TrEMBL record:
Protein name in UniProt: Dihydrolipoyl dehydrogenase
Binding site for FAD: 57, 121, 150-152, 318, 324-327
E.C. number(s) listed in UniProt: 1.8.1.4
Additional remarks: The active site is a redox-active disulfide bond.
PANTHER family associated with the record: DIHYDROLIPOYL DEHYDROGENASE (PTHR22912:SF224), DISULFIDE OXIDOREDUCTASE (PTHR22912)
Record's keyword annotation contains Cytoplasm: yes
Positions contributing to NAD(+) binding: 187-194, 210, 277
Disulfide bonds: 48-53
Species, as recorded: Thioploca ingrica
Entry annotation: catalytic residues: 450 (proton acceptor)
Domain of life, per lineage: Bacteria
Gene3D superfamilies (UniProt xref): 3.30.390.30, FAD/NAD(P)-binding domain
Protein keywords: Cytoplasm, Disulfide bond, FAD, Flavoprotein, NAD, Nucleotide-binding, Oxidoreductase, Redox-active center
Localization in the cell: Cytoplasm
Length: 471
């Protein structure tokens, strides 16, 4: 008889959610995780809670308040002299939030009777996991099912090796104890833009080097163009189509050499952040030995039910590729747990929302105008600017717009793209509408409270049929 019904390897948003749902469904469940915090103690929540989603949003919020007081408060009649920022206090607040939430998962495990085992999980067979803890005898535990949820780690660059002092990854950039006077960032994706926003607001001269010729290639082109213009206006110097060839440290500064339009250039900075994406975290998992198939980039291959080539072993979250988003991994964890319990659970990747937490925020779900054109799908477009929103004007932030794409004949909503204040919250209405296969007319006929930012969605839906009221 196996020790557990289910063993989950990894306690990030995919793993801990899968473990809790398995336990709720009556399965004896264990979750194995080897993360330790700066104090050397086990810390649940994976990258997201420890060095990703949560701490970055905490710093974004702190830097936003400082930026508001420095640049915008006077418009509200608020005068402030001698404004300063205490980086140590800001970091302490961030750390407290992280600790509270990671300890919260410990409480959730206890409440749901999930057994937490600290250590490195290593596959031994189709139903056995060896748990390795430094300076402690390894133990082998068995289960009817194994769920791999080991997440991802930052991608590194050989020409800019991480030294954790001058050249850092996203983890290091969340822990600066002073504001760098000159900050370089390689990569203009969500991580690079968010980290750049934090330190730019606090006073850094930020230069972002992006290899791709297009800014945020996955986003709607008009939304991306408007965001690019606004972020540059705020002080982020974003250089596209640049190829970094080297980064060397001397005399307490980093010299970055890069190609820009076939011309070799150099940039000197005090800190350099490498934010060029993430790769699957499978080191030490022993996947090959047990026969688990992986693609050329190292992602674990799974079928429709997220089962690997080995019956009884499943994989979810970043480690299987697709959108590397915490909420996507969590939903996969719930789906797999429910399938193991005999339910016919499914999830739709067409309605996974994307968010970038700059100011203004970007959020989108579904297809872009460019994707619809490439697929030959006829569509209608409704677009409403926040400059025409009473609530946005009252809050003093009118940047951005809402764009709704609907099928030209059926009126079904195919994509919603938002740039603006609270876009991360507003996109939820679009996700719900698309989950229910709603039409633009459905949103247009839905009463939205006034004055709210959500009225911009209502107006954009009206705009699909060319009947906007306030623009």
């Amino acid at each position: 008889m196996a020790d557990y019904n289910v063993i989950v390897i990894g306690a990030g948003p995919a793993g801990y959610v899968a473990a809790i749902r398995c336990a709720q469904l009556g399965m004896k469940t264990a979750c194995v995780d080897n993360w330790v915090n700066s104090e050397g103690k086990p810390s649940l929540g994976g990258t997201c809670l420890n060095v990703g989603c949560i701490p970055s949003k905490a710093l974004l919020d702190s830097s936003h308040h400082y930026y508001f007081m420095q640049k915008q408060a006077a418009q509200h009649g608020i005068q402030c002299e001698g404004l300063t920022i205490d980086i140590a206090a800001m970091q302490a607040r961030k750390d407290k939030i992280v600790k509270t939430l990671t300890q919260g998962i410990v409480g959730l495990f206890k409440k749901n009777q999930v057994t937490f085992i600290h250590g490195q999980g290593r596959l031994v067979s189709s139903n056995e996991v060896e748990i390795i803890v430094p300076q402690v005898n390894a133990q082998i535990v068995s289960a009817d099912y194994i769920i791999i949820a080991t997440g991802s780690v930052p991608t590194t660059l050989p020409m800019a090796p991480i030294d954790k002092q001058f050249i850092v990854d996203s983890t290091g950039a969340l822990a600066f104890n002073t504001v760098p006077q000159r900050l370089g960032i390689i990569g203009a994706g969500a991580i690079g833009l968010e980290l750049g926003s934090v330190w730019n607001r606090l006073g850094s001269q930020v230069t972002i080097l992006e290899a791709l010729p297009e800014f945020l290639a996955a986003a709607d082109r008009k939304i991306a163009a408007a965001a690019f213009k606004e972020l540059n206006k705020q002080g982020l110097n974003i250089k596209l189509h640049t190829q970094v060839t080297s980064a060397s440290v001397a005399n307490n500064e980093i010299t970055i050499t890069y190609q820009d339009n076939q011309e070799q250039k150099q940039l000197c900075v005090d800190k350099l952040v490498v934010a060029v994406g993430r790769k699957p975290n499978t080191d030490g998992l022993n996947t090959k030995a047990v026969g688990i198939r992986m693609d050329e980039r190292g992602f674990i291959q799974v079928d429709q039910s997220r089962q690997t080539d080995i019956p009884g072993i499943y994989a979810i979250g970043d480690v299987i590729g697709g959108p590397m988003l915490a909420h996507k991994g969590s939903e996969e964890g719930i789906m797999v747990a429910e399938r193991l319990a005999g339910q016919k659970s499914e999830m739709s990747y067409k309605t996974v929302p994307w968010v970038i937490y700059t100011a203004p925020e970007l959020a989108w779900v579904g297809q872009t105008e460019e994707q619809l054109q490439a697929a030959g799908i006829e569509y209608k477009l409704g677009q409403f600017p926040f400059a025409a929103s009473g609530r946005a004007k009252a809050q003093g932030d009118t940047n951005g717009m809402v764009r709704i794409l609907a099928h030209a004949h059926t009126d079904q909503i195919l994509g919603v793209h938002i740039l603006g204040l609270s876009a991360s919250e507003l996109i939820a209405e679009a996700v719900v509408a698309m989950e229910f296969e709603a039409s633009a007319e459905d949103l247009a006929r839905t009463i939205h409270a006034h004055p709210t930012l959500a009225e911009a969605i209502h107006e954009a839906a009206l705009g699909v049929d060319e009947r906007m009221i306030h623009a």
